[in-house]
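FAQ

Q: What does a record look like?
A: Structure on top, sequence underneath. For example:
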């Protein structure tokens, strides 16, 4: 035994430098290994954009512990003020309202719905976003939607929904461009609305913008009536609803465009140029449900209401009451007004609908 330990001491004495180097190498390996574990498991040395990517990927894992790590990474990046992290956390904790365009729908789909709790914290993150410079067009549009739906207030974001839609459009977002067009549509400025709908379709293939332009050509709003042009726009809407990346839009726009195309093909023959009939209307209610009145009418001529993911427009008549599933609140209003005008003045007329105050 003494001989054995003596041999070890002699070997260590002769190879002291080699053993020291091996020890240093082993220590370095352990440091590198520990760093890799920290990076890939906890993303501690990561940049904030890396934390967002890694955190979003972990949220789609089956492991609850992986999901918790992913959420922690997102919260750290959001705490540092990264806009992408603030927006993603807001989307994960909040049920997005109609019109909101998810930045990472695949991450939302992995979770199967909003994360429990922290809705107020989510809105606080959106408020922080408003103070961040150089936001992208989609984020600006979504802030406008949250303002429009009453989830955020103008004094909190220092601007109105229309302001954010305009900024979004100027930043190149087709969703923002469509929203600006919708604002002009509700104001009765169809020429300006048509311009923005056209840009929204040109820049991003927005299918609802194409439907609105088809309606404008079919009914002569801000332009001459042209059935062929209307049908061309409805066909573009059909293709875009199937192929475009403009997801997050509610309603079956493909079905809506198909119905419009059939209407134009079957029932809009022999249109003649006439001076548009002015129809003034007013609205009462909320963003999710409103009644439609004629300017001096005491009884509503129709109602548009959102229930979950569906929107129903109803017309009270005459000559005949009815209801219609529509893709948006704007289309519901349009359907009610068209039903009234055609019922009273006939389908061969042109109409100009103008929103008035109380």
């Amino acid at each position: 035994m003494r001989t054995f330990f003596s041999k070890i001491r002699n070997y260590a004495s002769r190879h002291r430098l080699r053993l020291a180097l091996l020890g240093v190498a082993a220590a370095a390996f352990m440091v590198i290994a520990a760093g890799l574990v920290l990076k890939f498991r906890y993303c501690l040395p990561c940049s904030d954009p890396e934390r967002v990517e890694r955190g979003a990927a972990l949220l789609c894992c089956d492991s609850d512990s992986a999901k918790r790590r992913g959420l922690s990474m997102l919260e750290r990046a959001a705490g540092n003020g990264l806009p992408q992290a603030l927006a993603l956390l807001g989307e994960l904790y909040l049920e997005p309202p109609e019109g909101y365009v998810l930045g990472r729908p695949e991450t939302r789909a992995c979770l199967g719905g909003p994360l429990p709790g922290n809705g107020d914290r989510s809105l606080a993150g959106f408020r922080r976003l408003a103070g961040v410079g150089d936001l992208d067009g989609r984020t600006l549009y979504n802030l406008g939607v949250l303002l429009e739906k009453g989830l955020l207030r103008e004094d909190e974001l220092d601007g109105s929904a229309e302001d954010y839609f305009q900024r979004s459009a100027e930043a190149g977002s087709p969703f923002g461009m469509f929203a600006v067009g919708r604002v002009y549509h509700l104001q009765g400025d169809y020429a300006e609305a048509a311009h923005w709908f056209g840009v929204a379709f040109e820049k991003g293939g927005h299918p609802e913008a194409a439907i609105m332009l088809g309606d404008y050509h079919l009914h002569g709003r801000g332009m001459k009536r042209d059935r062929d042009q209307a049908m061309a726009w409805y066909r573009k809407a059909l293709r875009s609803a199937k192929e475009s990346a403009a997801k997050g839009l509610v309603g079956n726009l493909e079905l809506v465009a198909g119905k419009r195309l059939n209407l134009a093909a079957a029932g809009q023959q022999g249109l003649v140029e006439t001076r548009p009939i002015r129809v003034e209307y007013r609205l009462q209610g909320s963003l999710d449900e409103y009644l439609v009145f004629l300017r001096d009418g005491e009884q509503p001529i129709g109602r548009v209401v959102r229930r979950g993911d569906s929107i129903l427009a109803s017309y009270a008549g005459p000559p005949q009451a009815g209801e219609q599933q529509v893709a948006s609140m704007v289309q519901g209003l349009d359907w009610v007004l068209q039903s009234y005008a055609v019922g009273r003045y006939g389908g061969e007329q042109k109409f100009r609908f103008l929103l008035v105050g109380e």
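Q: Is there anything notable about this one?
A: Confidence is low (pLDDT under 50) at residues 33-38, 269-273.
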